[in-house]
Amino acid sequence: MRHIFHIALCPLLLALTLWCINASANTDMQAATAKSVRSIVTGIVSYTRWPSLDELPRLCIYRSARYYLTLSEAGATPLPYIPVVVHDAPDALAAGCNAIYFGAESPADQLELIKRYQGKPLLLIAEQNPECVIGSAFCLIIRDDIVRFSVNLDALSRSGVRVNPDVLILARNKKHE
């Protein structure tokens, strides 16, 4: 009886070990993806200029964003923006954002908020708008452990901010993956 118990336990231990290894690899991949998201967003903000802004820009990060913690926590290197976590459009309007990082908000929701900010320079970055046709000027494309971004030049030209042309070239060049 004792021998049968050991035989039955072996596959269970093997399955548990494999699950732990897979979970560890997944965690490492998620950490690398989060680091890439932070790097891309901080790069975009760093190379953006707002007219008559004398301090760091306020980046409002929607709580629905998968990487809101990554973008809002202070790390080893200082952030080129002041992070503000918001829950909805009224929060974003009240916070006086210079830039907004959208999470699960649809492109239509993004457009609605843009209309409410009319006339103010505003950089818009979306986490879940891979087509990047309407809404945000910059859209992250996150697949597996690869993070890229695309640019909606029409939205960027209406944003009131100026972005270094090197960032725009980088969006077309897939080497930033």
Automatic annotation (TrEMBL):
Leader sequence segment: 1-25
Matching Pfam families: DUF4154 (PF13689)
Keyword tags: Signal
Protein name: YfiR family protein
